[in-house]
Amino acid sequence: MLAVHFGAGNIGRGFIGNLLYHSGYETVFVDVNAEIVNLLNEKNEYKVVLAEPGQQEDVIKNVRAINSAENPEKVVQAIAEADLVTTAIGPNIIPFIAGLVAEGLRKRAAQSDKPLNIIACENMIGGSSLLKEKVYEKLTEAEIAQFEGQFGFPDSAVDRIVPNQTNEDKLMVKVEPFYEWVVEETKIVGEKPEIQGITYVKDLVPYIERKLFTVNTGHALAAYFGYYYGEEFINKAMENPQIRELVEGALNESGEFLVKKYGFNAGDHAKYIQKILQRFSNSHIVDEVTRVGRSPIRKLGPNDRLVSPARQYSEVVGKEPVNLLKGVAAALLYDFQGDEEAIKVQTTIEENGVEKAIETFTGITAESPLFNTIIEQYKQLK
Ligand SMILES: NC(=O)c1ccc[n+]([C@@H]2O[C@H](COP(=O)([O-])OP(=O)(O)OC[C@H]3O[C@@H](n4cnc5c(N)ncnc54)[C@H](O)[C@@H]3O)[C@@H](O)[C@H]2O)c1
Ligand SMILES: O=P(O)(O)OC[C@@H](O)[C@@H](O)[C@H](O)[C@H](O)CO
């Protein structure tokens, strides 16, 4: 069985590639990083090491790679032959691979009616749906009609903390032991891919909201407050009682609306939160606050991990969130010069004021009661 996976980065090698290998797939990674592509083709294997006492090591074999910037035609051919396509490239990159995916599907559809599932494994709501939308923008109406039955774009939620890697072995990836991959069953075409570690569900929305608004919400607060208090790493930030309190407070707020909205068991959700706090504190993982805080414009977006739970908490619970809005304010203060989006947020604030920045990046307008609280929190932190 052949899997084509876009993005041979942290989650691509450390999580998806790992599970695909153990499920019997040959994996072709598609990436634009020439060094990683060349190393994968030279070694055809890499190590995944668990960040825990004992540091258990796993060798992932049966892998190769294509540089999509140099050999797009090889990517098209691989998609035409594949049994599964997955991505882990980052939400902002999805539109840029849509052309290649469309070409691959076009070539495949011309020679066979074999179904194919394309699963985006990104931290966002509706990642595969977005890819489908961008692919369909490249097609004719006749192609769309043909593709509808043959190709599936099930959405998914993926969870495993994989920090940036600094190993001498450039292919090796250190990952946390925990993982979860949930896939929307109803949009699968053909047979369900038998992948060890996938949980298929009928409705993905509760799972992706629970993951994004717990793991990633807490992580974002740890990152932005970690940065604010001068911490370099997430586990160190979690040792600061003020930051831990803010993170836990935000997770209790998002938890309150998630439990109410989806009917999760409150006790189980409280355990889920505690497990996540432990994962953030894992001393075997060196995870920079600047990785976790990367792309603050994306993270401040109306449907993302800070603003969406804040808005939904006020709608579903009927109260104003405190910690979640402090998280929004801390994200607005994030001025890391190595992050283009952080620079853009700061420039917008300097040139047009924080009010304009809130409206532009979060979609929250002055009519919302949340607006003034964010400004107050921002001014207090500043
Ligand atoms: N690292 C984690 O802990 C984690 C966990 C769950 C989900 N995710 C999600 O997985 C996705 C990837 O994150 P990551 O941490 O692995 O990032 P990463 O930067 O380590 O990997 C992304 C890879 O995509 C490649 N890439 C960029 N443009 C490309 C293109 N046009 N075509 C093909 N490849 C391209 C990059 O070269 C890189 O190797 C993101 O959506 C992230 O939110 C990450
Ligand atoms: O990947 P991002 O930028 O959306 O978010 C940064 C981290 O919160 C994220 O990568 C987590 O490590 C991951 O989502 C854990 O499952």
UniProtKB/TrEMBL annotation:
Question: What Gene Ontology terms describe where this protein resides (cellular component)?
Answer: cytosol
Q: Which reaction does it catalyse?
A: D-mannitol 1-phosphate + NAD(+) = beta-D-fructose 6-phosphate + NADH + H(+)
The record's Gene3D superfamilies line, in alphabetical order, gives: N-(1-d-carboxylethyl)-l-norvaline Dehydrogenase, domain 2 (1.10.1040.10), NAD(P)-binding Rossmann-like Domain (3.40.50.720)
Q: Does the keyword Oxidoreductase apply?
A: yes
What keywords is this UniProt entry annotated with?
Answer: NAD, Oxidoreductase
Where do the annotations place NAD(+) binding? A3, V4, H5, F6, G7, A8, G9, N10, I11, G12, R13, G14
Q: E.C. number, please?
A: 1.1.1.17
Q: Which residues form the Mannitol dehydrogenase C-terminal domain?
A: 203-381
Segments forming domain Mannitol dehydrogenase N-terminal: 2-196
Q: Name one GO molecular function term.
A: mannitol-1-phosphate 5-dehydrogenase activity
**GO BP terms:** mannitol catabolic process
Instruction: Say which family it is in.
Output: Belongs to the mannitol dehydrogenase family.
Report the NCBIfam families cross-referenced here. Answer: PRK02318.1-2 (NF002646), PRK02318.1-3 (NF002647), PRK02318.2-1 (NF002649), PRK02318.2-5 (NF002652)
User: What is the protein named?
Assistant: Mannitol-1-phosphate 5-dehydrogenase
Q: What's the name of its gene?
A: mtlD
